[in-house]
Amino acid sequence: MKILLIGGGGFVGSHTALRLLELGHEPLVYDIFDSQTHGEDPAQSPTLLRLAGKVEVRKGDTRDKPSLTEALAGVEAVYYFPANTGTGQSMYRVEQYCDVNVRGAGVFSDLLPGHSHNIRRIIVSSTRAVYGEGAANCPEHGRVFPATRRADALEKGDFETMCPTCGILLKPLPSRETDPLMPASVYGVTKLAQEQLIACIARSLGIPTVVFRYQNVYGPGQSLKNPYTGILSIFSQLLIAGRRIELFEDALPTRDFVHVDDVVEYNIRALESPIEGVCTLNVGSGVRSNLTELVEALASAVNREANYS
User: Fold this and answer.
1) pTM reported for the whole predicted model
2) Which conformational region is residue 157 in: left (phi greater than 0), alpha (psi within -120 to 50 degrees), or beta?
3) Contact present, 309 and 246 (Cβ < 8 Å)
């Protein structure tokens, strides 16, 4: 199939494009190559260099309707990756995140009715951030969904989540696709809007669509330029440079880290699986790691001292 990867010049998108090529498909990468991720000279971007000479690449903005319309010509399937991704950054660049993440999805969705006869599948890249704090277990009340922690509590060093009913200390649980959607950041809000915009239009047009809510993806090719990228790449740089890593919240937060190759495998299966309507799935390893374990493992991998506090 001819497959368009919107935002396909990024970390997960570029890996997916190369895998599609291996399988005999005709991938087309459409990406703005934002300087925050790719540097001031996109031509030297590691992801672009990996794609060069193998996959057709077009530079374009998702919000540019004429350009995106042209890229969609003859396409049979679409992977939708584009987004500004900084959770913290989104809280002080609200307009930017709404413009890129939400308006971009709106432009794409607006074009779908005119191309629905060609497009047979859409795969949307989303995030676990749509769940906010996520699910937790209360010894008294079972599975509960605590509200976002208050800033004054965090400033006093109170990092734990408590049961909204009885106030007992909670233990985090893996998210389920049926959990309440309570994003705690502008980034999470805009990614949820992306999901819902595209799913709404695709459902009305009868285009089978898969929405993947990724956990923390890592692997080769992850941007080392973007200060808002995953903590694995950030911690790796600090270890290699011999700098101390400062761990927040007493190093107690846990994360689910999933390798990019596994994410790509899910992306490929989503293209080929027989589905109807809109299917939403979490993508992770199912293994919970705290920050101390993470730094120790990284230090061992790069043969450096685990210098953290």
Assistant:
1) 0.91
2) left
3) yes
CB 55 within 8 A of CB 21: yes
Beta-strand ranges (E) seen in the chain are 2-6, 26-31, 56-59, 77-80, 121-127, 136-138, 142-144, 171-172, 209-214, 216-218, 254-259, 278-283, 288-290
Element (H, E) at 265: helix 260-272
For the record, the structure tokens of 148 come out as 């976002």
d(CA 127, CA 125): 7
Distance CA 28, CA 288 (A): 35
Per residue, what are the HEC states of 68-104? HHHHHCCCCEEEECCCCCCCCHHHCCHHHHHHHHHHH
Tens of pLDDT along 96-144?
A: 999 999 999 999 999 999 887 789 999 999 999 999 989 999 999 999 9
Q: What angle do CA 155, 156, 160 make, to 5 degrees?
A: 95
